[in-house]
Every structure is written in structure tokens, then in C-alpha cells.
Design brief:
The complex is a heterodimer.
Chain A: H1 8-15, E1 22-26, H2 30-39, E2 45-47, H3 55-65, E3 70-76, H4 77-82, H5 86-93, E4 98-104, E5 107-108, E6 114-115, H6 124-131, E7 135-139, H7 142-154, E8 159-164, H8 179-192
Helix pairs in contact in A: 5-6
Chain B: H1 3-16, E1 19-24, H2 31-39, E2 44-47, H3 51-63, E3 67-73, H4 74-77, H5 85-90, E4 95-99, H6 112-124, E5 128-132, H7 135-151, E6 156-160, H8 162-165
Parallel strand pairs in B: 1-2, 1-3, 3-4, 4-6, 5-6
Helix pairs in contact in B: 1-2, 1-7
The chains are: A alpha/beta, B alpha/beta.
């Protein structure tokens, strides 16, 4: 396996050059900080700080319920693996408006950097393919990153992007942890904003 | 009223209240209900790999203003507690339908531990319970749960007991 070189703090802005066009669901820890940093914790963003494993299926429920909106789930390798079956559920429902971005740092950064399964034997993109996700790719170089935004626009959904990054720190962004406030904020925005 | 009939009544009452997204782990107790969901093109059935996905789907649907329910056997309640963090933390309206095992007349010893843990788990996580012991209970319980969840924001499980469903015969 190739050594990861990408800095996670740089990748989301390249994958989503126009984040206002998306509704974002983010799983806990690093991916939540990176996502909040991307959108300035905007009303189109619902980040989690618990319920590890839930991001993908929250995104699925949202994508099925807002079929005219583009929905992006940002998760981590540890979070995704905790409910890896959710990729199967996504694939079988096949929402065309859903993209799952997995920021894979190969470790559990939030709890001390303990080694994760993707540093050993697990290959998430192969798992996504095996689940039946329509389009999947691995981003691990600058050249891959250059093509990621086009992948989102051109490939049929649901899409899965495994972004292999170093084990460096996530974006330093202090987001709102009040779940009830963030729910109301998001619902208001999701229901009042036109798609794009 | 036959098994098919009560499932149709339950389905009709849920649809009338605006519930259109039904996620489920298959169980004998929700088989007919999901068949009704699949038979229409304005309701959606989502087959899950594990029950907690359905709780998350309810939360995601709510973020877009859609009403959703997750259907599971009592054993599945043991899979959902961490995801029920959405209930107390965020006032997400989670509606559950739990078909009981390990309950009245159960013959399988493996079903009793989770059967007996359903109420304490749901209570601990802030989910209210309305029980259905007979056909007469079904409609008022369904309506009570719909009001609690979607009018008051109090997550609730409709628990279909084995007095109502009958115990599985071995």
C-alpha cells in the first residue's frame, strides 16, 4: 500500500469547490471538524459528536427525503467501519443524489491515534464496490484530488470516495455541539433553500 | 381481523399521518406491513443490515421534514441504544415499531434476555412506549404514538406484544 501523503485539512475544499450546493452530514471527530471548517459550520451542515457509525445512514435518510438536493456524507475510516453494513443499505436503495466521502487516516485520531483496520488489511473502496455502490474511487495523490470534483459531477450516484490522508490533525474549527439547535438550523435551511 | 388486516390498518394509519419512509429488519411481525409499503409507489421501504441504521434514517429524514418509522424485532432493540442519542440530545422524532419475542408464551430461551430488556433500554434512552396487547389497542396506540412523536417531539415505540401477535410455534 502506498504511503499516504495528503493533508486532510486541504482535501474537502478541493472535492467540494462550491460547498453551498450541498447538504452535509458529518460523522464524529475529525471529519466533523473538517466539514465544519469547509462550510464555516453553516446551516447546510449537520455534524455529529457521538452516535459513532450513524453518519452514512443519516445521510441516506436525508438523501431519500430530499431527492432534489445534493447530499454529502463526510465520515472517517473508523466511523464507517463501525457500521460498514450501511454501505450495503445505501447501495441497495441507490440514491443518485448521495456522495460518501471517507477521510481515511488509517487510525483513530480522536482517541490517541491508535492503529485502524485500514492500516492493516481493510480496503474501503473495494468494500464499497462489493456492496454495490454505483461509483467509487480512491484519492491519494494531488493528481487524484484534481479529478475528485469532476468525479462528483460526472459519475452516477451513489458515489464513494476514499481519501487517504496522513495521520495529522484535522481542521481547527470550533463547531456547534448543540444537537437540537443544529437540527432546527438545518431543517430550516434544507426546507427553505432551493436545490442546486 | 386477520394478520393481513391489522397490518393494513396500521399501515393506513401511519400513511394518513404522513409517514412515507419505512425502514426495517425483517421480522414475522412486520412482514405484511412492509409488503403494503412496497406495494405503493408513494411509500418507501428500506431494508437495513442492522436496526440502528433505521434510527439514523429517521433522523436524516427528519432533517428534510419527512416522516419515517423504523420497524424491528425486540432483539433489534439491543442494537440501537447508541444511535438513540438523537432522542435526548436533539429532540429528533424517532418512531419505532417493535414486534416482541421473549414475551408471553415464548418457547425460545435465546429470546428472553432481549425481550425483557426492551422496556428498560428504551426508557433509558428517552423513548416512550405504547403497548399493543389486543386488536382493540392497535389504533389508539398508533395514534397516541404518532401524536407523541410528530406533534410533541417525544420519540416513541409501538410495542406489539406476543399477546397480540401470538407466540411463534416450534
Amino acid at each position: 500500500m502506498r504511503q499516504a501523503t495528503l493533508d486532510r485539512r486541504d482535501v474537502l475544499a478541493r472535492i467540494f469547490p462550491d460547498p453551498d450546493r450541498y447538504l452535509f452530514i458529518s460523522g464524529l471527530a475529525g471529519p466533523a471538524r473538517d466539514t465544519a471548517g469547509l462550510t464555516k459550520d453553516g446551516a447546510n451542515t449537520f455534524t455529529m459528536a457521538g452516535a459513532m457509525g450513524a453518519a452514512t445512514t443519516v445521510g441516506l435518510g436525508l438523501a431519500l427525503s430530499a431527492p432534489d438536493r445534493k447530499v454529502a456524507v463526510v465520515t472517517g475510516d473508523g466511523e464507517l467501519l463501525m457500521n460498514i453494513g450501511s454501505l450495503v443499505t445505501v447501495a441497495s436503495m441507490a440514491p443518485p443524489n448521495l456522495t460518501i466521502v471517507c477521510i481515511d487516516n488509517g487510525c483513530h485520531g480522536e482517541t490517541g491515534g491508535q492503529t485502524g483496520h485500514t492500516s492493516r488489511t481493510a480496503n474501503l473502496e473495494q468494500i464499497a464496490k462489493g456492496a454495490g455502490i454505483a461509483s467509487s474511487t480512491v484519492v491519494e495523490t494531488e493528481a487524484d484530488l484534481d479529478k475528485a470534483a469532476a468525479f462528483l459531477e460526472e459519475m452516477p450516484g451513489p458515489r464513494f470516495i476514499q481519501v487517504r490522508v496522513t495521520d495529522g490533525p484535522p481542521t481547527n474549527y470550533k463547531r456547534n455541539f448543540n444537537m437540537a439547535e443544529c437540527r432546527i438550523r438545518f431543517r430550516t435551511a434544507a426546507m427553505n433553500t432551493a436545490g442546486g | 381481523m386477520t394478520t393481513t388486516d391489522w397490518s393494513k390498518q396500521l399501515f393506513d394509519d401511519l400513511v394518513e399521518a404522513g409517514v412515507t419512509l419505512f425502514s426495517y429488519v425483517p421480522d414475522a411481525g412486520n412482514k405484511k406491513l412492509i409488503e403494503h409499503v412496497s406495494a405503493r409507489n408513494d411509500t418507501t421501504a428500506v431494508l437495513l443490515t442492522t436496526e440502528e441504521e433505521g434510527v439514523a434514517i429517521c433522523a436524516g429524514a427528519d432533517l428534510a421534514g419527512r416522516k419515517s418509522v423504523v420497524c424491528m424485532q425486540s432483539s433489534g432493540v439491543g442494537n440501537v441504544p447508541n444511535f438513540l442519542s438523537f432522542v435526548k440530545g436533539g429532540n429528533f422524532p424517532i418512531l419505532m415499531i417493535v414486534s416482541m419475542r421473549g414475551d408471553y408464551g415464548e418457547q425460545n430461551p435465546w429470546q428472553y434476555p432481549m425481550g425483557q430488556a426492551v422496556e428498560p433500554i428504551l426508557t433509558a434512552m428517552g423513548v416512550g412506549i405504547v403497548k399493543v396487547d389486543s386488536l382493540d389497542d392497535l389504533r389508539p396506540a398508533t395514534r397516541a404514538a404518532l401524536s407523541a412523536v410528530f406533534a410533541a417531539g417525544q420519540s416513541t415505540a409501538i410495542v406489539l406484544t406476543q399477546r397480540f401477535l401470538g407466540a411463534k410455534q416450534f
